[in-house]
Amino acid sequence: MNEMLSYLIRFLLGDDIAAARYASHIGYTDNPKLFPRYPLVIIPSGFFNEHVYATPASLPSLPLKEINGMPLLFGRAKEEQTGNTLVIHADLIAGAYFLVTRYEEMVRRQARDAHGRFPGKESLPFRAGFIHRPLIDEYRLYLRSRLKLPPPEPGIRQIFLTHDVDAPFLYRSWKGTMRSLLDGRGLIQSFRGKTGNPAEDPYYTFPRLFEEDGRLAEKTHIARSVFFLKAGGRTPADKPHYNLQNKDILRLVDDIRSHGAEIGLHASYEAGQSPRLIAREKARLEQALGCTVRYNRHHFLASREPEDMNYLEEQALTDDFSLGYADVAGFRLGTSHPVRWINPHTRRLTALRLHPLTVMDCTLEEKKYMNLSRHEASAYCLSLINEVRKAGGELSLLWHNTSMRENTGSYLPQLYSFLLTQLAGT
Q1: Burial of 19 (0-12, 13-18, 19+ CB in 10 A)
Q2: Same domain flag for 141 and 164
């Protein structure tokens, strides 16, 4: 508990040298006798009390109070000076913990969609109207100002351009050949689709992704590309199944590596339901690649229960990129900064890093999700990017190779190019 609280205080202040020096200047106590030890004290709200924690009574109630224009999850919007100590009654530590641990997903087990995921539109950040704001990053500015620390340097520190390879090809299997015939492509063209150059397949948009990602990387030197490959899954939601030893997949792996991109595990839909399967899938991917795999993202973003992160940690997966909502883009963890996972059941701090997913392509366009027009999607994405920039955080975009198909009526290929062009000036 003490290690976890110390980490949260450091995280709230930031990761620069000044913050590291001042982390010990913040006390988390309601004992007035201890106030003189600290320049700043945060009064606990009772959130962590044994009879409150993990019960419905621990959940914030709407409407939320505010402090300095920021939504306040716990405590009171009150400051007072006691001797040389500034006492803040806003429990920003509990609020940060609530968001980064996915605490409400642990308490509200009944709130799940058809895929077993916690819906973004059920989340407190959405219902309280701050899903588009990295609230913890705003808390950071507030605390630093109270300690007379300068604000963190603005600007995007890291850009992750991530691509889930759910379906690398449309026509490269015998089922694909039948699909091609049903699509009216004719026998010769359908046969060529199965046996010809895989780069001619409609889903093989990887050369464009390599080009666009590489151009941004050259201009900013902070952009990294990660392709997540499936290595298992037997459910209908895991289709199409592809073999990592298939010559087309091996060629794709070579192309990814030759363009300086990284490869991560795309844990299957089935593994999301049965997390023990992650071990087998990781081993299978590592065998195919001949190297250690450190990154993970769940298929369908179906990291269903907070405690399932245990299985990633056990398999020495160091970084997870699953934590965005499928139905609404924004800041699921309340921050734009990578954060170490804290198990909300045990309150144990781990070494596993969670990278907040800022935007997924289909979230913007699909009718069942945000159903935004191209103009609305562009404006919303730019507003999220601006929030990351103000907070000095990390930006993570997810664009599927299948979303880069041209002439489908979708605005997603053009939107991706537009966003990367805007980021080139970062």
Answers
A1: buried
A2: no
Is 153 inside a domain boundary? no
Place of tokens 């299997």: 173
pLDDT of residue 201: 84
pTM reported for the whole predicted model: 0.95
Give helix 2-13 / helix 135-146 axis angle, nearest 10°: 80
Same domain, 182 and 139: no
Asked whether 331 and 135 are in contact (CB, 8 A), the reply is yes
379: exposed, middle or buried (C-beta count within 10 Å: 0-12, 13-18, 19+)? Answer: exposed
With beta carbons less than 8 A apart as the criterion, state whether 146 and 86 touch.
yes
Q: Does residue 268 sit in the same domain as residue 360?
A: yes
**Cα separation, 353 vs 421, whole angstroms:** 28
Residue 160, pLDDT score: 98
pLDDT in tens, 121-162: 999 999 999 999 999 999 999 999 999 999 999 999 999 999
One domain, residues 271 and 128: no
Containing structural domain, residue 48: 2-146
Assess if residue 338 is contained within a domain: yes
Contact 14, 144 (CB under 8 A): yes
Q: How far apart are CA 232 and CA 239, in angstroms?
A: 10
| DSSP code, position 152 | P
Residue with tokens 């940060």: 96
Q: How many domains does the chain have?
A: 2
Residue 283, judged by CB atoms within 10 A of its CB (0-12, 13-18, 19+), counts as middle
What element of type H or E holds 268?
none
Measured CA distances, 56 to 105, 121, 287, 384 (Å) = 11, 19, 45, 31
> What pLDDT is recorded for position 194?
53
Whether residue 261 lies inside any domain: the answer is yes
Q: Does residue 130 sit in the same domain as residue 251?
A: no
Q: Which residues of the chain have pLDDT under 50?
A: 174, 180, 186, 188, 190-191
Same domain? For 44 and 133 the reply is yes
CATH number at residue 256: 3.20.20.370
The number of beta carbons lying within 10 Å of the beta carbon of residue 148 is 8
344 with 249, same domain: the answer is yes
